[in-house]
Amino acid sequence: MGAQSPKQPHEVDEGQPVLRPGDIYSIPLDHPVIVISREELNRGDYVLVVPVTSGKFESRKDLENCVPFSPGEFGFEKHCVAQAEMVSWLFKTDLDLEHGRMGRLTDEALGEVVEAVGYVMGAKCRLNPPEKTEAQSPAAMG
Q1: How far apart are CA 110 and CA 73, in angstroms?
Q2: Beta strands in 4-128 (DSSP E)
Q3: Domains contained in the chain, CATH given
Q4: Model's pTM, two decimal places?
Q5: d(CA 116, CA 10)
Q6: Fewest CB within 10 A of the end CB: N or C in the chain?
Q7: In b/e form, how buried is each residue of 70-96, taking b as 16+ CB within 10 angstroms?
């Protein structure tokens, strides 16, 4: 995939990196993965990820188990797809945390990846909207 774009630092909480759903990191051999597990679960030793590949883009881009991305989107340099059928877990130490994340998906793009994972399982999966903090509530803005 050639992750040449500048890496983004990740947030740190109590000395541990904060990994959020939609974060994109490299793993060995410069292979990007998208973190899809919930933030509170990512505080442990493992994360749930969907790998991204630029291989066979033309034949994969329209498959329901794949989500296509264009160069320049979310830090990707080539046309590529998230392969939902390859969802897996990794040790957090397998992620290139030292260099930071490559990018982060929008909620809409992450929702497409979650829906593709659901397709693989024969389930209707959707991304839950982020919970509003008190500062984001209409009463606090009023």
Answers
A1: 13
A2: 11-13, 16-18, 23-27, 31-35, 46-53, 66-69, 80-83, 88-91, 103-104
A3: 11-126 (2.30.30.110)
A4: 0.81
A5: 26
A6: C
A7: eeeebbbbeebbbbbebbeebebebbb
Distance CA 54, CA 79 (A): 6
pLDDT of residue 2: 46
Which two structure tokens, joined as six digits, stand for 120? 């693989």
User: Coil, strand, or helix at residue 2?
Assistant: coil
Binned average pLDDT, 10 residues per bin, the chain of 142 residues: 55 80 86 94 94 97 98 96 97 91 95 97 86 51 46
Which of 39, 27, 25, 21 lies closest to 76, judged by CA? 25
